[in-house]
Amino acid sequence: MKSSYQSSGFAGVLLLATILNCHAGDQIQVYTVPKEHPATPLAQAQQAAGASDIPVNSAPIRWTLPAGWKEKPADGIRLGSFAINGENGGKAEVAITSFPGSVGTELGNVNRWRGELSLAPIGQSDLVSEPVTVDSFQGKLFDIAGTSARTVVAIIPRNDSSWFIKLRGDTAAVAAAKPVFLEFLKSVHFAGNGIEAPPLGSAPAGADPHAGLATQEASSDAPKWNVPAQWVETAPSSAMIFKSFSAPGGAGAKADITVSFFQGEVGGVLANVNRWRGQMGQPPVEQGQLKGLTESLATPNGTATLVDIVGANAETGQSARLVAAIVPHGDKTWFYKLMGNGKVVEGQKNSFVEFVKTVQYP
Amino acid sequence: MVDRFINFFTSLRLTVVCLALALVLVFVGTLAQVQIGLYAAQSEYFRSFFVYWTPKGTHWKIPFLPGGWLLGLVLLVNLLAAHIKRFHLSRKKIGLILIHGGLILLLGGQFLTEVFQVEGQMRLEPGDVKNYSESGRKNELAVIDTTDPDKDRVVAIPESLVAQGGEIRTPELPFTLRVEKYYPNSFPAGPMSGESEKIKAADGIGRRLLFSPTNIARSMDEVDLPAALVQVVSDKGPIGEWVVSTWYTRYPAFARLQADIGGIMPDVKVTSPQTFTFNGRTYEIALRPVRYYNPYSVKLLAFNHDLYLGTDVPKNFSSKIHLTDPTTGDDRDILIYMNNPLRYHGQTFFQAGFEPGDTGTILQVVRNPASLAPYIACSLVALGLVVQFLMHLFSFARRRAQQTKPQPARNKPAAPVLRPALANGKGRIL
Q1: Is the pLDDT at A14 greater than 80, yes or no?
Q2: Does B177 reside within a domain?
Q3: Which residues contact A73 (CB under 8 A, 6 or more apart)?
Q4: If you placed Cys at B360, which of A18, A26, B125, B394 could pair as Cys (CB 3.0 to 4.6 Å)?
Q5: Does A164 reach chain B within 8 Å, measured CB to CB?
Q6: Mind listing the pLDDT tens digit for each residue in A275-303?
Q7: Residue B320 belongs to a domain
Q8: How far is A6 from chain B (nearest CA, A)?
Q9: What is the complex's ipTM, to 2 decimals?
Q10: pLDDT below 70 — which residues of chain B?
Q11: Does any domain span residue A203?
């Protein structure tokens, strides 16, 4: 009795296994679909959508072009591309690409690059790299030399993406270009790592205007300050900006003053100074150089950091000057920025510094 | 017979056997991760009814262990059956019934989600129009008749059939596909590279761009990129031979490959379709992510990626899309952003990611017929707990009220009743 009960159970289970196996999805499917529409050009699509006010794409990466390198147009996949002509007709090129997540392992990448150089694949234990820092992100530098060609690649994981900056070419040309390439890596800056975000005012219609604005919602307790008489309050160009003023100069020249505050350290002094230097078309500096470029400013609320940068407005290309103060207060950091025509900024600098000193925080 | 059946499913022995098998399954499945990777082990051992063994050189699939779904299902039936057999329906137990019903619905709902949920991704650049999403892991060999100027006829062959190798014949195609090589995971290799094994095709990109096999992906965030060498043969002889691979079709692999070969083969565009003609009709052949088609289309108007000022901390991602559904007449703009998905026709479109440089958006498209089950289950459990608590509270309050009510005076005090017993000299209270 018991055995028949067990055998019927076993038979049932086998039958179920067979039925389920038949439904495992190994079926060929046949269907008819309309042909895919090719993508319309970006501008056309945006125009059609009436969405031209929405910033879709901003340069995701910036760099300082080394002398002797020829920049080639980016092609959508390569975000930066450069040609290097070495001595004796040797050639090399640099390509910057970025991909979300990881496609294959580090070893897989290296073996693919080795394959390009007609080298046999290596094992994990043979993988050799040097540490490299690009825009404060830690990455790895691989140097793979073939018989006639050589590849030097920096892999920089950043947020959810991997960035690849690859120098490849004739052995002699790459050897000569490598020191310049390493300097080039130091000049690279990623978007968002100190580059200001698109203004919230341009968010698509219907977007939650309060999304992520916790830092600014605390503005009900506004600070008190003495605004210099010649400054005119203007409408902030972005919801990120707490208050903005304009200081007129002669012949249409002017400077703008903005005040913003955020929770926490907001990247620290170096990141913000480099962000402002970027806005003034200046190369970034290292932590060690910061001391010579900033000065401490005593305010009733503690010590602020003052920075003065002369250069050219990166957006307009016109010569400009930027004076900014970073004031940590409580759990927030306040940013004051005076930027505009060099002469106007020169005339307004003292008023600006005094203004920063008069602020009484809530 | 029925009694035996009931006894079998209500027996505690079945529970113990299932739990013991679950232990074995977890042990074996964990070990299998070393060989086949985390994702494959989860699929084969835990998200399956049976674990199959395929003897070398055969295509047999012999079940040798119950899979996670079967064990979960039997345990659920076992619990339900035991409950039904021993449980007596009464008004007093309505709270308990609701709680257990909710738990069973939660388990059953999760099971249905595992079995029936379809999850894909839709990658769109501004201006792109798509009426399908693509699987994140599953692939298919698509042979597409593109002769008609308005529509394509697709014959989609699951990767599992390609993996078996040999000939694939179907009445839907006027020719036979002969899978000469198949690598479950691959990487591109140059013609001069030193790999011992690589596939090279007689036609298409595969003449110049070769593929070598590599170990299958071990982690959940890596995806296998298979490659196969497929010969198309008619009854009159070979038509051609192509290398097909998701290196050409899966994002971001194709972008990655294009960037890598850009300096070596600048004229090769890896996403170009590989085509051939047969009997006056034009066909495309590609190994691509499995596509889930919708009766409506989505066009990306714009993608927006906001950051907190001065930081690279994302504040908001949003995709402005235009939805066109000829079956319902829907034709409207919709904004999808974080925590505000689009729910349409049983599918949910989440803002899942974006391409580097904000050049496009990635929407997660999920169809889950049991998506409401957790909400209903939690509501049932909460209701059951409230009912149970209130019933206890009322009964306690009633008892308390009775205890505090002054007792009516009795005719005879208790002591005299006891007294004779105590006094009987035996020292026992009777």
Answers
A1: no
A2: yes
A3: A81
A4: B125
A5: yes
A6: 888 888 888 888 888 888 888 888 887 88
A7: yes
A8: 9
A9: 0.73
A10: 190-196, 221, 262-266, 312, 406-430
A11: no
